[in-house]
Please model this.
Amino acid sequence: MDALVITGGRRLTGKVRASGSKNAALPIMAASILADEPLVLKGVPNLADIRTMGRLLSQLGVKVERKKGGTMVLKSPSRSRRNRAPYKIMKTMRAGICVLGPLLARRGKAEVSLPGGCAIGDRPVDLHLKGLRWLGGRIEIEHGYIAGSCQRLRGTEMYLGGPFGSSVTGTANILMAATLAKGTTVIDCAACEPEVQDLARVLQKMGACIDGIGSPRLVIEGVDRLGGCEHRVIPDRIEAGTFLVAGAATRGDVTVEGARWNDLFALVHALNEMGAEVEHEDGTIRATARRRLRSIDVTTLPFPGFPTDLQAQMMAALARADGISVVTEKIYPDRFMHVAELARMGAEIRKHSNAAVVHGTERLSGAPVMASDLRASAALVIAGLMASGQTRVSRVYHLDRGYDRLEQKLRSLGARIRRVKE
Ligand code: EPU
Model:
């Protein structure tokens, strides 16, 4: 297992490029099942989760070819009976659930293991199952697997909201299934996240008829078949946001190339409130902070609200800000595993139900800490960059699931960070 060793105290300065979005690429890869012509994807990040999705799709008969420079070609066979997504893959990556809708819509049968538990809290898939049932799929849970079958799915009108609002991969699953259904499907309370928008654009290029992209009401006119297409995956807003937070938190000056302003506006607003300057020009966003950041209150919400996937990184920055901040988590009420680890570095954070009260402290001190999930790992790295002395972040395999060469990119901004074997 690898660890990251960080010697803190340096301001990050310079330019870094955002990779392609993991959470856009994963469902888009699953969309390859819907057609038998090739799907050519550009800008696919080189990440553990992407390789896992590649393995899952290969098990389902899809030919997955990774070419140089982030291009991936996926080709699904015209007939395949390989409809089983096994537990051994599904337990390591929840996005595997995105094969369910396409398998059912295109092959009429799916056996997909229920995904495993998750360090960020409960992650049910009831909305995925309800939506597919509403489209006419027969769905049972048998021996830990979702067993689905159907003739042709039928379009219908549905409300897809859950107790925490819309579901990103739930919307992706139903959207993909509806493209091949007979008739019109309306998804109300659809997720508006840029990753869902990117998937919808790919489906359009493949021949799907979709209206309302980016809004909470998607209208899909089913078609008989979809074809192949070529598509460049959008930049990763969470990776870009992580660099901007790291830049501001270290009182640095970081420019992220390939970052999309409109995808990151809630973060930009928060950083401005904290006293950082954030500006954009020609597909780059620059964050500068000249002095200690100020405390603010942050509440995570579905897009365009503040993303839960940047909550931990923001909390790390607030741990050293001037004043008291309240961070409220409205997507995953238990997503606070990083609180105890940040406390090991001197952060003063009290958790109350789905909120954390952060008393900013002037100084964090390096310590051995343990990554518990992807975004918590990024938060610990940011804390390590701000802290005095050395921080050792263990279990960085979590980080490798979602950040492409993070330590190299941070080094290019002047960070002292290296990977070691444990
Ligand atoms: N929910 C339900 N029922 C469902 C599905 C979701 O109640 O059937 C609840 C969840 O428990 C949660 C809320 O709805 O409280 C939103 O969950 P959502 O379904 O939107 O999450 P997801 O699709 O499983 C994606 C990202 C996550 C990101 C969330 C929220 C991918 C592959 N994953 O997960 O990314 O946190 O949306 O934006 O797109 C990450 O990259 O680190 C990560 C965890």
